[in-house]
């Protein structure tokens, strides 16, 4: 058995805490350093994991002996920090979104490719076992041709005084924050998105960004998706993904997932719902296995760029009104005008 991979963690905020929790009993990797400009936060996180803390990612790179890094800082910093480690030849797992705009996301991926360095975007829902199983059910044809997918990430949480609602740091509001997960889920389950319509909901919180938004998308396969995002509306749903096909329905829930074929009266349970820390462990494992050369990344650089591109198109729609075509290399515009 190979030695655990030595990882450095940049950022000691809420997302970083999910990574440290997922790594508490990890055998394939261990943290050797945590860096944050908030020295006390880095020290507290490092103490809980039995590793050293650093006041900057540069200091961690120089002193910790890390063999790869996880970047958990706000989106506006992703490109600069990830580029620094790529230039040092260290693999990077970067939290979503990869960047706040398509051009910088593509430049980051090109830099990694040119230097032969592994770069991966973290998108936890691709590592949720029930989501993976749902994709297999769709691919198998058990529910026929998919007509519609619905996704809701809508819960009430105050965002006033949080970096997520500072557009200079986050790149936007709930659309880029939760919506990045949503569009990646759509692409994972249904394939490339070809056009999108975004509508802002009633703004409740006193913040300079959207706190509620609805997205409508068409996919290359002809299916549509409706995405409901909010920091101010608590829908209190037991499911977060619903997939409707010509021959059946798939429900992916927080506590249980099931599907039912049109020809049957019974629901078939296929999963136990969303397990956050299992998902985080899964993406860390996939990243480490890619470094070891034992499996490919579940999220490609093309996937990462596409998710940024779709969100950027959604903001264009939000500002200009109407449908916006996705211009990515894997998207083929529909032959008829979206209505």
Number of DSSP helical runs: 11
Termini separation comes to 56 Å
Spans of 5+ residues with little confidence (pLDDT < 50)? 329-339
Number of strands: 15
Largest sheet: 9 strands, mixed
Largest beta sheet: strand ordering: 14-13-12-11-7-10-9-8-15
Q: Which fold name fills CATH's third level, the topology of the largest domain?
A: Dihydrodipicolinate Reductase, domain 2
Named CATH architecture of the largest domain = 2-Layer Sandwich
CATH superfamily of the largest domain: Dihydrodipicolinate Reductase, domain 2
* Proportion of residues in β-strands: 15-25%
Question: How does this model look, in words?
Answer:
The chain is built from 11 helices and 15 strands. It is of the alpha/beta class. It has 2 domains: 136 residues, NAD(P)-binding Rossmann-like Domain (Rossmann fold), CATH 3.40.50.720; 171 residues, Dihydrodipicolinate Reductase, domain 2, CATH 3.30.360.10. A 9-stranded mixed β-sheet has the order 14-13-12-11-7-10-9-8-15. A 6-stranded parallel β-sheet has the order 3-2-1-4-5-6, with helices on both faces. α1 links the parallel β1 and β2. The relative contact order is 0.15. The C terminus is likely disordered.
Task: Output the keywords.
single chain; about 350 residues; Rossmann fold; 2 domains; nine-stranded mixed β-sheet; six-stranded parallel β-sheet; about 25% strand; globular; disordered C terminus
The gist of it:
The protein has helices spanning 14-22, 39-49, 57-63, 78-87, 102-115, 129-140, 167-170, 174-177, 179-190, 276-292, 301-320, and strands at 5-10, 29-35, 52-54, 68-71, 92-95, 119-122, 146-154, 193-200, 212-219, 224-230, 239-245, 248-253, 257-261, 268-271, 324-325. With 339 residues, the protein is α/β, with parallel strands linked by helices.
């Amino acid at each position: 058995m190979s030695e655990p991979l030595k990882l450095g963690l940049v950022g000691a905020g809420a997302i970083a805490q999910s990574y440290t929790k997922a790594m508490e009993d990890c055998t394939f990797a261990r943290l050797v350093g945590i860096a944050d400009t908030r020295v006390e936060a880095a020290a507290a996180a490092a103490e809980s994991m039995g590793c050293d803390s650093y006041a900057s990612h540069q200091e961690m790179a120089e002193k910790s002996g890390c063999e790869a890094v996880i970047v958990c800082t706000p989106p506006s910093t992703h490109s600069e920090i990830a580029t620094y480690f790529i230039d040092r030849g260290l693999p990077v797992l970067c939290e979503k979104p990869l960047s706040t705009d398509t051009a910088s996301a593509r430049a980051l991926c090109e830099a990694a490719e040119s230097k032969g360095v592994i770069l991966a975007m973290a998108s936890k829902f691709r590592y949720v076992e029930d989501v993976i199983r749902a994709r297999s059910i769709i691919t198998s044809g058990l529910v026929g041709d998919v007509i519609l997918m619905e996704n809701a990430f809508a819960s009430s949480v105050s965002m006033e005084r949080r970096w997520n609602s500072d557009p200079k740091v986050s790149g936007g509001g709930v659309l880029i924050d939760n919506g990045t997960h949503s569009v990646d889920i759509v692409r994972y389950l249904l394939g490339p998105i070809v056009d999108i319509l975004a509508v802002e909901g009633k703004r409740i919180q006193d913040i300079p960004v959207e706190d509620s938004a609805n997205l409508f998308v068409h996919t290359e396969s002809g299916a549509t998706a409706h995405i409901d995002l909010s920091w101010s509306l608590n829908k209190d749903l037991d499911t977060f993904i619903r997939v409707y096909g010509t021959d059946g329905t798939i429900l992916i829930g927080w506590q249980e997932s099931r599907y039912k074929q049109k020809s049957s009266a019974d629901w078939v349970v296929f999963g136990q719902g969303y397990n956050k820390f299992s998902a985080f462990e899964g993406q860390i494992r996939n990243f480490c296995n890619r470094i070891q050369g034992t499996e490919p990344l579940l999220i490609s650089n093309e996937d990462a760029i596409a998710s940024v591109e779709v969100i950027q198109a959604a903001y264009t729609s939000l500002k200009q009104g109407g449908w916006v075509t996705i211009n990515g290399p894997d998207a083929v515009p529909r032959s008829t005008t979206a209505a």
